[in-house]
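Replication factor A C-terminal domain-containing protein, pasting as requested.
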Amino acid sequence: MILMDEEGRKIHASCVKKWFPKFKRYLKEDSSIYVKKPNVAPNTSKFKFAHPESKLNFYHDTIVKDCENFSGSAHGFHFVDFNTIVSNNILESNSFDIIGHIFEYGHMDTSEQDKSKHKMLLHLQDIEDTKLKITLWGHNEYYMHDFLANNNRLAPVVIVQFARVKFINGRPFSSTYFDVSRVFINNDIDEITIYKNKLVSENGQQLSSSGIKMIASKQDTEHDDFLKNHLFSNIEDLFEPLEEKTVIIVGTVKGIRQNIRWYYLACSNCKKSAKEKESSTDKVDGSHEVAEIVTYECANLKCKNIKISVIPRFKIPLRVQDNAGTLTLTLFDQEAKKLFKYTAKELYDKNKKLGNNLELYPMELKVVLDRKLAIKIDITRYNVDNKSNLYGISRLTENADIIDELEKNNLTPQPANSDSFLIGSSDVGSHDTKVLKGQVNCNKPIKFISTPIELKRNLATCIDIDEMENLSTSKYPRLSPPDEQPTPLLVPKKEK
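Structure tokens follow.
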């Protein structure tokens, strides 16, 4: 909870589950209460919504009663002007309130399965004509979408209470914060009425819906991206790329490569890869001993001399199979969010706390196995010049209609009695190696694996880590995060 007294001062309060039934009927948004004998504790939260030093806890002996004569402000807004935010003069660790009117808004982004991760971008403007971008998440996004759909003659004045900001490469990115933030749209409250009147008196500007426009989308719709804009390809056509292009494939996830790390440590400033950098300093206890400290260095030269922190981000090597072959594709953080309930940081912290080996992929990632995906892949100049079939996943979808249409238009099923061999792979997650042989019919051509090179590469990437005793460095590097130098892929000597 965030509680506010009659003088407008706010404090963070909480109640543990076992005592909650005692207070439940009193704890309603916008209700007024008396609180007697709460416990006062230090506020150790990294992100603070209210009083920065203290918070309240409700315990078994705390007394809560209804209050009928509260005389303070209804909402207790403390507005921050837009210029303070865009000029980086606000702390990332504190929430703030803003008021402005919409002049542009974006499409709903519902690509995530979790509705709390659906979002909408707003472009707001204040009375001084300063502009600010803010992202609405979850239920606040749906509230805004419904308002815009049903009130097209009203230009909205918006208040966002308990917003937050993050600065990335020096640029502010404002947003709502989970369920804490509140959004008011053209509500009949004093603050919005005063804003509208001030806008007219100072700027002579009467708000009208005709001045609002939709933000042009920088990304094509999912339908166009997968079905109209790019060529379809089979996996076997990607083993030895001949030209730069973007292709679409349809494949089923058959495993996760166990011998390649499933995450990387990303710079908190630019999201590029970062590495540990050990240094030492004198201990402050006067013992003249040296203390070893660990800092991080970003691979991005623009972050040089900037003190950074790191956060784990997904870099998952998926084994994807279609009816023509199997290929390892690297799934990075942005698209991984569509498939998993957990973030990379949550899985990293959870498994580190449990003492699990962080080099082995967590069991929570197994939910991706046997899921059929349409996948967008960029074949780059690097792939062509080095004959490298190491690709990242640019975009993916599980949309059944899109996958059905792709398969209907592009996949030709083999005759039931055709002579063909399908050589399975010993993928992690499925250790069964199968060889399937069709009925022999001399009147039909026999189709084998495309080339010996293809077969050798497939087998090399499928060999279990326990079998890789004699290793040598291949000229084919493993895919790395953006702007990171590729590292060599280890393959058995006997493959050569």
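Note for the archive: The mean pLDDT is 81.
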